[in-house]
Amino acid sequence: MIPLVLPAMSDAEAPFVTRLRSGEGPVDGVWDSLMVDEDDGGVTYAGAGGILAIDGATAEALDGDVVLVQPRTGRVERILRAGSPHNTLLVTERCDQLCVMCSQPPKKTHVDRFAYLEDACLLAEPGLHIGISGGEPTLYKDQLLSMVERVLRQRPDLSFHILSNGQHFTEDDVPRLRDPLYRKVSWGVPLYAASAPLHDEIVGKEGAFDALQDGLATLLMAGARVELRTVLVSSNLAALPELSRFVASRLRFVEVWSIMQLEHIGFAKGRWRTLFVDHRDQFQMVAGAIDWATMHGVRAQLFNFPRCTVPPAYRGVAIASISDWKRKYPTACTGCAEQANCSGFFEWHPDEEAGAMVEPL
User: 231 forms bridges with which residues in the sheet?
Assistant: First the structure.
């Protein structure tokens, strides 16, 4: 796994954002920290923010990364990794849902990092597509939208994908979201069932389904770009056909519907036996949902489904969805001709189970 947080020391008193430079390329004297030394333990940089010594990485690996330096806690956070298409900003760990399979259980506290994240975005590589996640980012909707707007006005080459439960949009947001800036923003919104009782049960929040329908209506009125997401769990497997009909009949404006396999971490780790669906044995439900959506003009795709574990006819929609820093391929994948296009497994998926699931193509 690629480490996103590294131990570090700095003479600065306050946190600061900087871009690490050790090789060739244009240098911004205000924002860049230049390498002054490297040894077996790590790399030392100097910049306007202060002296920075990072342990456990090489200058080559860090060159071009945009990091948040946190002197008091003795660490740096690699906010944007150079050369990676998988960069996600965590804007809050607060959430107003308690999903049964949540991969990142929420916290009650919130640390406001918007100013740092905005600085980081302005230092991004040209054309970068940046993810935004939580918690629930729209609990801080005005700060979130203001940050996105300021960044896109200065960096129109960037784009964002924001994960949200979609429940905090109102009609008052429509004029704002109609701004052409938001053509560079897509929203990843989860819907787990076509019925309120089942969706609310999965997300652990009464009234969530109804609030989500209002939110989706607002996004539709705003002409927003929406990716619909459904995590597959044991309780919604049999409901997939009904959900596919719901999506095809009422949510045809979405750009794509992503059906996602479960992540072995967070709440799901302790509930794995009761939540996990082995799709190799029960793929007909998934296949039926994809077929129905596709026939009615809704593009469907599979996230976190290793290609060899789905029937050949559906391998084309099983995309390499897992971010590079947390993706792995078990030893059994060695020699597979499809690996470059395959999701593989999350780094924290049990090795024995992952190895037993795959057959190289």
Answer: 260
Q: By the 8 A CB rule, do 262 and 275 touch?
A: yes
pLDDT digits (tens, 9 = 90+) for 224-272: 999 999 999 999 999 999 999 999 999 999 999 999 999 999 999 999 9
Q: Report the 3 state secondary structure along the chain.
A: CCCCEEEEEECCCCCEEEEEECCCCCCCCCCEEEEEEECCCEEEEEECCEEEEEECCCHHHHCCCEEEEEHHHCEEEEEECCCCCCEEEECCCCCCCCCCCCCCCCCCCCCCCHHHHHHHHHCCCCCCEEEEECCCHHHHHHHHHHHHHHHHHHCCCCEEEEECCCCCCCHHHHHHHCCHHHHHEEEEEECCCCCHHHHHHHHCCCCHHHHHHHHHHHHHHCCCEEEEEEECCCCCCCCHHHHHHHHHHHCCCCCEEEEECCCCCCHHHHCHHHHCCCCCCCHHHHHHHHHHHHHCCCCEEEECCCHHHCCHHHHHHECCCCCHHHEECCHHHCCCCCHHHCCCEECCCCHHHHHHHCCCC
Residue 343 to residue 196: CA distance in whole angstroms:
31
The pair phi, psi for residue 112, each rounded to 5°, is -75, 110
Say if residue 124 is exposed, middle or buried (CB neighbours under 10 Å; 0-12, 13-18, 19+). Answer: buried
What number of other Cβ atoms are within 10 A of residue 90's Cβ?
Answer: 18
Q: What is the pLDDT of residue 238?
A: 96
Residue 218 is predicted with a pLDDT of 97
For residue 27, the model assigns a pLDDT of 75
Segments in the chain below pLDDT 50: none
Question: 327 vs 8, 84, 324, CA distance in Å?
Answer: 25, 13, 5
Q: What confidence score (pLDDT) does residue 28 get?
A: 74
The β-bridge relationship of strands 66-70 and 16-21 is antiparallel
- pLDDT computed for residue 29 by the predictor: 76
Please check whether residue 287 is in contact with residue 338, taking contact to mean a CB–CB distance below 8 angstroms.
no
**Residue-level pLDDT at 23:** 74
